[in-house]
Amino acid sequence: MAGATISEAVPRLNVEVSGFDFVDSRFNEVMTDLPAQPTAAEWLTFLQHVLADFGCVTGTLHRLDPADGLLKLVACQGIPEVLMPVIQTIPVGKGVAGAAAERREPVEICNLQTDTSGVAKPDAKKTQVQGSLAVPVLDGDKLCGTLGIGKMVAYDFSDAEKISLMSVGRSIAARL
């Protein structure tokens, strides 16, 4: 993968990430059990498995609403109640999830609490999350939503982790 960008590496996931812990039989079982049109509870279970496999405690899954072009919350874990109204609907291009949707590539913040990039909205600090990663959920080139994960410690996600989370997004895109 030397010299390859995340976007270039994603189609080669089976080769590039074959040794990464997330790609295991437990994930395959979760995907097999996820129906064509998952319920809210099934999406939450899916998200909880993703968080556990990536060692994260917070996460969100948003669906792109084609009617208004906004990201709508499907499932979340570990998000403070005070932020629920804020994360229910996210414009593409706003915040970490919106930036991932707009750029169609992973957006990472090593420490959300000290970030000055302007990507994360100020209220995001209320999560107490430090390391965060959001990826677009893509069906080919079509944006279907976003998937975000977070750790309570400063953390730089590896290229393999970014590629793996992109793969997870691609695997659910048609169901989202």
Description:
34% of the residues lie in helices and 22% in strands. With 176 residues, the chain is α+β, with helices and mostly antiparallel strands. It has a single domain, classed as GAF domain (Beta-Lactamase, 2-Layer Sandwich). Strands 3-2-1-6-5-4 form a six-stranded antiparallel β-sheet, with helices on both faces. A hairpin with a 4-residue loop joins strand 1 and strand 2. The chain is globular, with a radius of gyration of 15 Å. The N terminus is likely disordered.
Sum this structure up briefly:
The chain is of the alpha+beta class and 176 residues long. It has helices at 6-9, 13-16, 25-33, 40-54, 84-87, 95-103, 159-172, and strands at 58-65, 70-77, 89-91, 107-109, 132-139, 142-150. The protein is globular and about 35 Å long.
Could you give the topology of this structure?
Blueprint: H1 6-9, H2 13-16, H3 25-33, H4 40-54, E1 58-65, E2 70-77, H5 84-87, E3 89-91, H6 95-103, E4 107-109, E5 132-139, E6 142-150, H7 159-172
Antiparallel strand pairs: 1-2, 1-6, 2-3, 4-5, 5-6
Beta fraction: 15-25%
Number of DSSP strand runs: 6
Write down the overall mean pLDDT: 80
Largest sheet: 6 strands, antiparallel
Strand order in the largest sheet: 3-2-1-6-5-4
Order of helices and strands: HHHHEEHEHEEEH
| CATH C-level | Alpha Beta
Return residue spans where pLDDT drops below 50 for at least 5 consecutive residues.
1-25
Helix-residue proportion: 25-40%
Whole-number count of domains: 1
